[in-house]
Design a protein that fits this description.
3 domains; 22 strands; Aldehyde Dehydrogenase, Chain A, domain 1; 6-stranded mixed β-sheet; about 525 residues; alpha/beta; Aldehyde Dehydrogenase, Chain A, domain 2; globular; 19 helices; 7-stranded mixed β-sheet
Amino acid sequence: MNTIDVFSPIDGKLLKSYLVSSSDEITESIHLARDAAQLWADKTVKQRLACISILKQKLVTDCDSITDQIVAVTGKVKTEVVIGEIYPLLEMLSFYENNATKILAKQSVSTSPMAFPNAKAHYQYQPFGVVAVISPWNFPFQLTLYPLLSALIAGNAIIFKVSELSLPIGELIMQLIAELDLPDGLVHWVVGGSETGAYLIDQRPDLIFFTGGHATGCRVMASAAQHPVPVILELGGKDTMLVFADAHKQRAVNAVMYGAFSNSGQVCVSVEQLYVEQTIFNSFVDQLCQAANKLKVGHGDKGDLGVISSKAQLALIQSHYQDAIAKGAKASGPLSINGSYVTPVILWNITDDMRILQEETFGPLLVVIPFDDETDVIERINKSEFGLSASIWSQNTSRAEHVANQLEVGNWAINDVIKNTGHPRLPFGGVKNSGFGRYHGAEGLRSFCYTVSGLISQSRYVQEPNWFPYSNNSYQAMRAYLDTLFSSDNLWYRLKRNWPALRYYQKYSALHLTQHWQNFIIIILRKLN
């Protein structure tokens, strides 16, 4: 059988070897998950949350052990693991414990007493069934567990695949899942690379949640379309930070350091493009260079940035830097690489033909671009093929919000960066090449369900006005009904001109006619109010 060796990006040492899941194993996982999904869906939301609740305490009590394992696999520094991998899960679990029952409750809706006499209507949320979660290597713990737990709370079974670079995290997740009171076969882990992911999709799960790059996301979507299976795509970004001259300068500089270089820039919402108003551009760049030089790279007690987790990503970062320098960019310093550690670099004198302006870098390189005109910079930002997140910096928050609402992104923040994307109440997702669909918040939890609409009629009428047989009289009566209800002129004029045609409804029983006109009067009174 094929195996995958996983090496630590910190020192290159072998962490563990894993057997690749066979096609038969994946097929069997789908079958077992379908059986378990039926049992799980029968539980109330409150019961599901009770089964999962122990995980929150495990994340707290085992924080050090979990952190050490994630550090070894990803090369992050410890604080980054706690902030980016563990803390968002605790916030999410707390939010859903308090709100999921209400979010997923059946919703009653009003019905027109004339069009739907003696009827009640509602819609409700049903779990899809089996959800496939395919997660990336940059946040393998959080970006697997967040959609996995959301899907579980919504009532689904799960089959998940982590990146082949992050297999020990998949093992860690299964160890945590084993401690929960879940039905047998509800959660499955498959091991492998792109071929395994493709085979999993071909087994027709009921929903696919994919986090990763744009190119792979397009392939996932194309494969899913063959069946068809709905997908949620959380793809990459080329996120923008826009700093006006009246911004709080030091706060903005510190925010840039975090927004651009947290996890060594390996964050889908990393700031990769910084637009600074021309009047403060030179001084702001100087401050950025000074701040970047103070960042510490390494895993010492005071390390700020860890390693680049993927060798392929390291090569892309190098090529983006070399291309920019060859085309005239200025830099805060050379691209210093020590093993998989990369020192952050600020770049300016950027031109449109540079790859670093067009492609997602996903590393500790930040381009800084001056702007004079607000309208022009908005237009330039919106030309990007990506649309995940942005931040706007100004002490005039009304102006900043006006700008934010013109940006083609799925998420924005004013005078803060990245943090908003982890808010448990805010839906998260992108537009354009950054994907579609949402998770987090109420909308995100409902994304793991399909909506079922229901209408219950308690009418005992033998006939309804819209039923056969049709005639010219029935057409004139319905036309009069529409005119009476929806025309904009005086109500009494509408009644007067339509009364002869409306009398068509006298063909129904007296009870029917009386009830209809009672309801009709109710509508009129509502409109007059």
